[in-house]
Design goal:
homodimer, about 325 residues, alpha/beta, Rossmann fold, Hypothetical Protein Tm841, Chain: A,domain 3, 6-stranded mixed β-sheet
Amino acid sequence: MKKLINDVDTLLDESLSGFAKAHADIIQLSSQPHFVRRLQAKTSGKVVLISGGGSGHEPLHTGFVGLGMLDAACPGQIFTSPTPDQMLAAAQALENDAGVLFIVKNYAGDVMSFEIAAEMLDYPNATVLVSDDVSLDKNHSTGRRGVAGTLIVEKMLGAAAENGADLAFCKSLGDRINQHTASMGVALTSCTVPALGKPTFHLDDNQIEMGVGIHGEHGRETVGLMVATDIVERLLITITDGLQLKPGQQVLLHVNGFGATPLMELYLIYDLASQFLQKLGLSIVRSLVGNYTTSLDMAGCSLTLTIVDDELIRLWDAPVHTASLRWGC
Amino acid sequence: MKKLINDVDTLLDESLSGFAKAHADIIQLSSQPHFVRRLQAKTSGKVVLISGGGSGHEPLHTGFVGLGMLDAACPGQIFTSPTPDQMLAAAQALENDAGVLFIVKNYAGDVMSFEIAAEMLDYPNATVLVSDDVSLDKNHSTGRRGVAGTLIVEKMLGAAAENGADLAFCKSLGDRINQHTASMGVALTSCTVPALGKPTFHLDDNQIEMGVGIHGEHGRETVGLMVATDIVERLLITITDGLQLKPGQQVLLHVNGFGATPLMELYLIYDLASQFLQKLGLSIVRSLVGNYTTSLDMAGCSLTLTIVDDELIRLWDAPVHTASLRWGC
C-alpha cells in the first residue's frame, strides 16, 4: 500500500488539521470530539443542519460546511460511523431557537449514532435519512444506502434553511428530495483502506462491479468490462425505473467520481448519460460533474438523478460558499 | 486497462462533448479544429488569453475557461500537443483590438505549435512560457517543464486581462508570476494512457518517483517509499531553494493531486507543508488544495509556491467563473 500519510492512526487528525488551515475563512475544526463547524453561524432563526459519517468520502461532508449548506459535519474514522458525542457537541455548539436537523446516510452505524444524539438533545430536532442507492431493492432488509444523492439533499436543504425555512418544512423538504433522488454506481477497481493495507475487494482485470456501494460493498452483480455506453445504459435504466420518470420531466444530473477517475472519463459519461436521458424525453436542467462523494482511491463513478421543479431549482441555484462547492457568492 | 470509455479514438471527442453540455452556461466547444471558448467574450479592450496542451490534465486547461481566466483553451490528444490551427482558430474567433496572449507550458511540442500559430497571426500577440517545475535543473537543456503553477499564471493573468491591462503589461506580469512560482511533484503510481493500454512507467510497491513530470516523465530520482513528512520536506527544500525564499515573505501554497489521490491525503500534505513553511518564517496568505493539474489516474501530488505581493493577491482574489475554479461571482 502506497499512501501520502505518516501513520494510519494519525491520518484523520492530520488531514482535518490541514483542511481547517486551508479553509480557515469558512470553517473551524473543534476537537475532542471532532466536528467541523461553519464560521459566522446564525444565532437565531435558522435551522441548524448537521451531517456526518465515516471519512474517506471527501469532500463529503466536511467540504460542504459553510454558507448555504451544512452548519457542521462530524467525521468518523475512515469508513466508520462517527460517535454520538460528536453530533451532540456540534448541535450544542450551534443550536439556536430554530432547532436542529440531522442529515444521515442510511447505514446502520450512522443511523444509530445520530439516533442516540437526537435522544440526548433537549430541543427540537428531526432527521432526514438519505437512501438514494437504487442498486439495492426498495425492500432490502436494511433499506437502501445513502450515496452521492446526499450532496443534493444537503445543498437544497442548506438553501432552504439559509432562507429561514422552519424545522418541519426542512424535514419534509429533505424527505421529498430524497424520494425524488436515485443513484447507482459502478467500480472499476477497489479502494484501499489504509488501516487494512490492501484492496477491500477483488476484481479481475476484465471485471467491474455494478451497483457498488461507496465503501466498496458488493453491488448488484460483478460483470465483465463493457463499453461506457453500455455501463451508462445499465445504470440509467435502474435509476429511471426507480424514479418512475416520465417524458417531459426535469432532472438534475450528477456524475460523481469515486476518487481515482479522471475528469475526462466523467465528462464522457456525462455526454452518454445526457444522450440517453434525452432519448427518454427528459430535460436536464442542472448538472454537476466531479469527484464529490468518493471512496478513497476507488476508480469508477455513480450517476444520480433528482426530479426537480422550480422550487428545487431555486434551492440548487442559491448561493453556497463551502470548501468544495461554491457559487453565487 | 479498465477505463470508462467506448473507444480510444473517440475518447477526447466524447469527453469534450460532455464538458460542453455540462457547462453550456460558461463555454462553447468549437470543432474542426477543436477549441473551447468562453461565452460572452468581450469584443474590445481585453487581451485575449489562450492556453492549451495535451489532454489528460483536466481540469487544466478547459476547466479554466471563463470570466476572469482564459478566453480559450486548445486541447490536444492525450499527452499530445495541440496543433497550430487550433490556436489560430481560437485567436481568430476571439481577437479584438487588445491583442492575444498565449500561455504555454514549456514542452517542445507545445512551444512549437504556439510559435507557429503566433507567426501566422497578423495582429499583436505575445507568449508567456510557464516553466515552474524545479525538479529539473535551471540549466536543463530544454528548460524547466510547465506544471501545476500554470493554473496560478492563468488565474492572475485572467484577472489582469479582465481588468483591462494591456498586452505588454500582461506579458510582463505573466513572466513575473512564472519567475515567482516553483513546483515539484511526487508519484506513487504511474498513469495509464488509454492509447498505450498499460502504465507509462514502473514503480515497485515500495518506490516513489520524486520530481515526476505531469506525463509521468522520469523525475529527479526514484526513491524508497517514505512518510509524508519526509516527502513534503524533500519537495519544499527544492522549491524554497529554487525561489530563494526569505523569512517574512508571503506565499500562495497550492497542493495539487495528480488525479487518483484522495482529498484526505492532499489535506494532510497541506498540513505538513504549512508547518514546514511556518518554520521557515514564511506566511501562507492564500491556498488551493485539490486535483487541478492531473495526469489521468496517477497517484501522487505536487506542491507549488508563488511569492505574492498585494497586487498578485488582488489578482488571485478577483472574481472567476469557470467550470472548475469559481469564486466572487
